[in-house]
Amino acid sequence: IKDVLMDNDLIKDLVDVAKDSALLNGVLMRTKETPNSSEVVTYAPFTLFPSPVPKDTFHQALAVQTHYNRLVDKISQDSSFLEEALATTIKVDDFTGRLFNIYRHVLQEGKIQSIVLGLNRSDYMLDQNGDGSASLKQIEINTIAASFGGLASHTPNVHRHILKVAGRLEDSKRILDNNPSAGLAKGLAKAWELYGSERAVVLYLVEELQRNIFDHRYVENELWKRNIPVIRRQFEDVAKTGFLDQDKRLFVDGREVAIVYFRNGYMPQNYTEQNWEARLMMERSMAVKCPDISTHLAGTKKVQQELARPGVLERFFPGEPDVVDQIRATFAGLYTLDMGPEGDKTVAMALAKPDQFVLKPQREGGGNNLYGAEICQVLEGVKQSTERMAYILMDKVQPRPVHNYLLRLGTPLKLSTCLSELGVFGAYVRHGQDMVLNECAGHLLRTKSDEHSDGGVAAGVAVLDNPLLV
Ligand code: ADP
Ligand code: MG
Ligand code: MG
């Protein structure tokens, strides 16, 4: 394989084949120049070759997903846990604070919708152990707008084809099937059926710039196949035309909304005052929210850190020590930066060995975390003040690098040293007290050059990949 990677003529031919295959298989993205038009589109960024992932850790990640679904769902129902876990964060982080205000508002008014739909993605990296083995470590869980399930359903055929053309037929046969589109759509469809109105629509709440629309469309089309109507609207549309009737049913553009599927609304830049109002209205409504505000908060980095405290998982899974063990086995070291001796210890530890940690604010979408020297700069500035409570500290996971070519429009071709991140999609539906659906909905492998500390496909760093189990 090393020789192949160094054979420039062969690689150039394969890259041409690869790009055409991506287009033929619908691994697509709109361009930066025309993000709201499909007149001219390009391939979504992807690796030339699939990346090795150890079989046991891959299956471990799939197997723990239904437990993570239950965990997120339990957290979302535990108001005293959420209050305590986020108490310090919301004092200093305005964005989380505003989300929390909506949460309190809805709690006080009383939730009127007993259907809960969760579509999440739990992300992992494989930490190298001294003995050459690797341990599955969770990076984070995304409970809002977890993306690339649509495109990931179509990348396996691309890599199968590339491997065949490269003369690796046996490897080609080992590329796994993957269909998160179907799994995510199944969750949406179940919640829509339970809502129980044929005319009511699934509203995709989308961004202004829609480069990644094809990823959405795959799931959307699964719904249309089931005769479930879908509309795509922005916060502004909801603000302008949305209202609640006397039963708090949500109407947007004259259509009753069964489900609001948030593919936007996870970062501060998504919100004007008007958009905050619209979010509140949707949360107060009878529509099923994916995610609802409490599930959104359950996905914060601060909650992740609090879960790693001794005894916390036991609280959520009394009498289920196996579940606790399976989840906890995936935790990396997570440390509080709250005021007090524990937080002081975290500061000292981070400043002493900044390269061993990641400093994380309560943000999503990639590009927000701090590494190495930046950790020292930021911590020196905030270590004496409550500002530090906006962050958590995490052990840096150190995966084993592999070589690959990252194919991205406008980026010159070069051999990169790469790190991969494995995502696992979860889908669940709860109706009152009954979990009526709880499934692992597929996987996503993303790979980036090791020149980048942070990740994210939308952030322009990571690209789509497939695991080749080893
Ligand atoms: P976001 O919600 O912005 O995606 P993440 O926690 O996933 O935040 O961090 C973004 C990226 O930073 C990840 O995709 C990964 O590449 C890198 N990263 C985050 N946490 C760690 C960690 N503990 N060890 C190594 N890399 C990390
Ligand atoms: Mg995230
Ligand atoms: Mg992430």
UniProtKB/TrEMBL annotation:
Pathway: Sulfur metabolism; glutathione biosynthesis; glutathione from L-cysteine and L-glutamate: step 2/2. InterPro entries: Glutathione_synthase, Glutathione_synthase_a-hlx, Glutathione_synthase_C_euk, Glutathione_synthase_N_euk, GSH-S_sub-bd_sf, GSH_synth_subst-bd, PreATP-grasp_dom_sf. Binds 1 Mg(2+) ion per subunit. ATP binds at residues 140, 301, 360-369, 371, 421, 448, 454. GO terms for molecular function: ATP binding; glutathione binding; glutathione synthase activity; magnesium ion binding. Its EC number is 6.3.2.3. It is an enzyme of class 6 (ligase). GO terms for cellular component: cytosol. SUPFAM superfamilies: Glutathione synthetase ATP-binding domain-like (SSF56059), PreATP-grasp domain (SSF52440). Keywords: ATP-binding, Glutathione biosynthesis, Ligase, Magnesium, Metal-binding, Nucleotide-binding. Its cofactor is Mg(2+). Residues 200-298 form the Glutathione synthase substrate-binding domain. Mg(2+) binds at residues 140, 142, 364. Pfam families: GSH_synth_ATP, GSH_synthase. Substrate binds at residues 121, 144-147, 210-212, 263-266, 446, 457-458. PANTHER family: GLUTATHIONE SYNTHETASE. NCBIfam families: glut_syn_euk. Catalyzes the production of glutathione from gamma-glutamylcysteine and glycine in an ATP-dependent manner. Glutathione (gamma-glutamylcysteinylglycine, GSH) is the most abundant intracellular thiol in living aerobic cells and is required for numerous processes including the protection of cells against oxidative damage, amino acid transport, the detoxification of foreign compounds, the maintenance of protein sulfhydryl groups in a reduced state and acts as a cofactor for a number of enzymes. Participates in ophthalmate biosynthesis in hepatocytes. Belongs to the eukaryotic GSH synthase family. Homodimer. This is Glutathione synthetase. It comes from Oncorhynchus mykiss (Rainbow trout). The lineage of its organism: Eukaryota, Metazoa, Chordata, Craniata, Vertebrata. The gene is gss.
